[in-house]
């Protein structure tokens, strides 16, 4: 322990008890506040990390201190300048959502309620110009009443602010990254909506959608869309598909997600919905709406649990694709060429600059108007017929065989 901790007492006030969580740059302890006589959670910054890690820890404290929402963990106290930087948080007694899902999927009503609460919390975060960037089951705490709390804002990012990572690296958890995070492009609020969509999908299926190694899990979303069960209620299925759309602009806002989950109102006009024509309950095949080939071809960077560089991922290509996806990608790659009809009575002749070899140079016959114009310019002589070669007649005289 550092000098700021004496006899397991931090800052002469907080008695550290057992650890309840250990992460990449911090560990969380249950503690006893000797002044206010209550249990709290204390997050200690681990020594020996790089300055960027220390800056992210300080960022988390400042972000949480500026937010106030029932589904966010409250900040009670903090010191980010001492020998042992720490933040004192409300202690949420209960498991994480990851622990809960180890026992199987949630009932649909419970998943709706949990999703609406988390989406509402994200809407509050987004209203303050922030992106969480690491929404996942292990960062969602559950109390004994089953209420959810979004935690761990260490990677939260102010939209438009300077990155805390190098340009060829991103941070996050591979299995829950949005496609734009995998591609290394700028991210905004839709990235959190995508991650929450994957979390809710896991809640109703009981399994993580993209599995495997960090690289495999991250690149998998460039090969295929998440598999949303067909037996879910139509509004839930449509919402999950919209939340996990490959294109950020096609995803609903966190506020709209919260409203849809709370009221069961379908999100018409979202991804894959054609409300202006046909039956609005009919949807296009997801593969036909997702330009997966274009995304894979554009991939230049990829992240894992914390920061993994994936220059080699641009070599990856999908091994299989649905016919609809192939048709869509082909149509986007090159516009369709018109096919000339074999029954056209007037085929279109190509126009050339100059006279190409083998082209017919015979001028077309003149129209009556053109002939009249030519005679008018040539004068009376133009009306006198000329004797052509081999002609049998001369005007004014009998022909060779005339009488």
Automatic annotation (TrEMBL):
ATP binds at residue 43. Residues 14-268 form the Protein kinase domain. Residues 319-335 have a biased composition (Low complexity). Pfam families: Pkinase. Residues 383-395 have a biased composition (Basic and acidic residues). Keywords: ATP-binding, Kinase, Nucleotide-binding, Serine/threonine-protein kinase, Transferase. Residues 315-403 are annotated as: Disordered. GO terms for molecular function: kinase activity. Its EC number is 2.7.11.1. It is an enzyme of class 2 (transferase). InterPro entries: Kinase-like_dom_sf, Prot_kinase_dom, Protein_kinase_ATP_BS, Ser/Thr_kinase_AS. This is non-specific serine/threonine protein kinase. It comes from Saccharothrix hoggarensis.
